[in-house]
Structure prediction request, 136 residues.
Amino acid sequence: MKGKDLLWSLFKNLFGPPPKGGGPKSKKTTDNIGLRYVITQHSKDSVLLDNISNYLGCGKCYFSRNEVNLTVSTLSDINNKIIALFNKYPLLGTKKEDYLDFCKVAELIKSKDHLTKQGIENIKRIKSNMNSKRIH
Prediction:
């Protein structure tokens, strides 16, 4: 396998069973609503997450106890790198549904709808059905 194919294979394998706390998330603070994309792995896999971050050219790795989190929270990186990657290499199963919801929130933010009360309600509704809260 060539470099990009090998890296994609490793990246794609992260989306078998949902990793603890991993995947798209919508984030609300007291001042704004934003997006972040997080992959959580055991700390022994920190080199893998560093390599993914370097390959994508975005994100930061954060360590806590025996975990490492790769977090991408810059909207331009989410739109131009994360969403672009999964548009090129689509996810399957429930992760695909989470990804599509993540894209809806990204579009709401891009169009500035997140600055309205209705936009915030739409984001809350979308978030309430993502990841472990998804009804199959």
In short: Residues 6-10, 15-19 have pLDDT under 50 and may be disordered. Residues 56 and 85 are 9 Å apart (CA to CA). The chain is about 50% helix and 20% strand. The chain has one domain: 3-133.
